[in-house]
Design brief:
The chain is α+β, with helices and mostly antiparallel strands. The chain contains 24 helices and eleven strands. The protein has a four-stranded mixed sheet with strand order 6-7-11-10.
């Protein structure tokens, strides 16, 4: 007997029996029809694989039994609960769990998928499920054979089930919408033309949960408006406006009928991959930086800047921080990747890179990639200030580990501009041997007392000394020329290798992202060698690890006189 004949035999002989059994099991006609159709789907799949079944009736009822067991487990949502081999007559799971909202929603969603079927399959499903016609009557009404009708119902059932699984794989955005924060990242040159406008388009994404989810859903793979309507639970007419808005601003690209996000959205997987890359290249890259600086410790101390006599595990925080800043300003590769001319021009009049973070499920991302509450997740990049009247940056500060809270951020870095200037002068003045409290006013005395309390300044019996590193411009120039320049040359080939690796993965993961956006993220990935250098040095017990804000705040504060 060929397969078509076998399918016809199964449909003719068992459809009524299985349907009656299924209605009795579930306690309702609609649910019974769902269960019966699932049984036939499983039977047809098994028959297509095995070809010949010796005891057909036994096989069908055995399949029905296991299908019912699986169906019942879905109802009760208790996967760990084992059902008995033989279910007692009269058991009515559907009635017992009629109030299960999740079940109702899934069944309702499955029925709504009927609208997406082909015309023939849609009519077959409506006639069979909604009008209650048997397969034979459906075949007659549609002018097709019973075998064809059974197959169309079977195929329709497969499509509905596939869509349900697709919805589950997309994290059920209908019930648990994702959340995303989007911000424009200004170029490093604050004088560049085309600053971010007062109300950029990115604000209009942050203000709309629908737009956020459209960007999230279209991030890796393109989606049609039908798929987006199903995944969001929002009808197509309501989505069209937001989709058109995102396309007009080139935040989504329309390729045929599929929408795809045009920028990179960072999530925890993104950061974990970054750590994986740095861990893989730890011995050939990060270890090179650490070993080089420790090997040249005596040469570094010989420069004679204030703080050069700090213990090694304390001094190297500042030394590494300064090298990070130097590399970002002198590496040809990094300068090319962060070139302001590469920033995108947006319809809001701004010229900036779009930076987006996936905050779905309330996750607070750990940019170190550890995701283990290690403390490094609050890493804050180097803050530095550049005034035209001085040759070098006035200060550096790198907030890392557990001392980046607002209360730990030094005012000389994050205060108002006039406060920064006054504190800078005060902290430099206390280095003078002739410094006296009598030489400063009441407000400066109060600020000095606050610095002592926070640990930024140490108070002796008759003196005050900074608890951080201070360079003169000449000393800084010497450090850069004698120590940092050779080290940067040493690691430049590794920078090039990592850049290719990061760029390749970004292109693969975000195929519609523009090259300028990929370059910018590659720059950020490379610039993050700072945190991995510090983390790995701490792991090797080469750096002092602060336990409190007062211990940590001064570690990477550097002033340049």
């Amino acid at each position: 007997m060929d397969l078509q004949a076998l399918y016809s035999k199964i449909t003719n002989e068992f459809s009524a029996k299985i349907l009656n059994w299924a209605v009795k099991k579930t306690g309702s006609r609609p649910d019974g029809e769902d269960l019966a159709q699932e049984v036939f789907m499983q039977v047809f799949i098994a028959v297509s694989k095995q070809g010949k079944i010796k005891k057909l009736e036994n096989f069908i009822w055995k399949t029905a039994h296991f299908t019912w067991c699986s169906y019942a487990r879905t109802l009760v949502r208790r996967n760990a609960c084992e059902l008995p081999d033989v279910l007692p007559d009269g058991t009515n799971f559907a009635q017992d769990y009629a109030d299960d909202d999740a079940l109702k929603n899934e069944l309702s969603r499955m029925r709504r998928k009927i609208a997406d079927l082909s015309k023939l399959q849609r009519e077959a499903v409506i006639l069979h499920y909604l009008d209650g016609l048997p397969v034979k009557a459906v075949a007659k009404r549609l002018g097709i054979t019973e075998t064809a009708a059974a197959w169309h119902l079977f195929d329709a059932r497969k499509k509905v089930k596939k869509e349900l699984e697709t919805m589950k794989n997309e994290n059920s955005y209908v019930y648990s919408p994702g959340k995303m924060k989007v911000s424009p990242r200004k170029g490093m040159n604050v004088n560049a033309s085309g600053d971010v406008p007062q109300n950029p388009d990115t604000n209009k994404i942050n203000d709309s949960l629908i737009r956020q989810n459209l960007c999230l859903l279209c991030n890796k793979e393109g989606k049609t408006i039908d798929e987006l309507a199903e995944l969001t639970g929002v009808s197509k007419p309501y989505l069209e406006y937001d989709l058109d808005w995102l396309v007009e601003r080139e935040l989504l690209l329309l390729d045929g009928k599929r929408y795809q996000t045009s920028f990179i959205i960072m999530n925890q997987k993104y950061f974990e991959y970054r750590r994986e890359v740095y861990s893989k290249h730890r011995n050939g890259f990060i270890s090179t930086v650490i070993e080089y600086l420790w090997k040249n410790e005596s040469n570094i101390r010989e420069i004679g800047f204030y703080g050069s006599d700090f213990p090694t595990e304390r001094l190297m925080w500042a030394v590494i921080t300064m090298f990070i800043s130097y590399a970002s300003r002198n590496s040809e590769l990094l300068l090319r990747l962060k070139n302001d001319d590469n920033r995108e021009i947006h319809s809001d009049g701004g010229k900036y890179h779009v930076m987006a973070m996936d905050y779905s499920n309330g996750h607070k991302h750990d940019i170190s990639g550890s995701y283990n509450n290690s403390g490094w997740e609050d890493f804050l990049g180097i803050a530095c200030d550049n005034y035209s009247e001085i040759r070098f940056e006035r200060y550096y500060w790198l907030g890392v580990y557990n001392f980046v809270g607002k209360e730990a951020r030094p005012e000389v870095v994050f205060g108002e501009k006039d406060t920064q200037v006054r504190l800078y002068k005060l902290y430099c003045d206390i280095l003078n041997d002739c410094f006296s409290l009598d030489s400063i006013n009441a407000d400066e005395k109060e600020k000095l007392a606050e610095a002592v309390e926070s640990g930024l300044v140490l108070k002796g019996s008759n003196s005050y000394k900074p608890n951080f590193v201070v360079f003169t411009t000449e000393q800084l120039a010497r450090l850069q020329a004698e120590i940092y320049a050779p080290l940067l040359s040493l690691i430049t080939p590794k920078f090039d290798e990592l850049a290719k690796q990061f760029s390749k993965i970004h292109k693969a993961d975000f195929p519609k992202a523009k090259q300028s956006n990929i370059d910018h993220h590659t720059y950020l990935d490379l610039w993050m060698f700072d945190i991995f250098t510090l983390m790995f040095a701490v792991e090797e017990n080469k750096l002092f690890l602060p336990k409190t804000s007062s211990e940590g705040t001064p570690l990477t504060l550097i002033l340049v006189k």
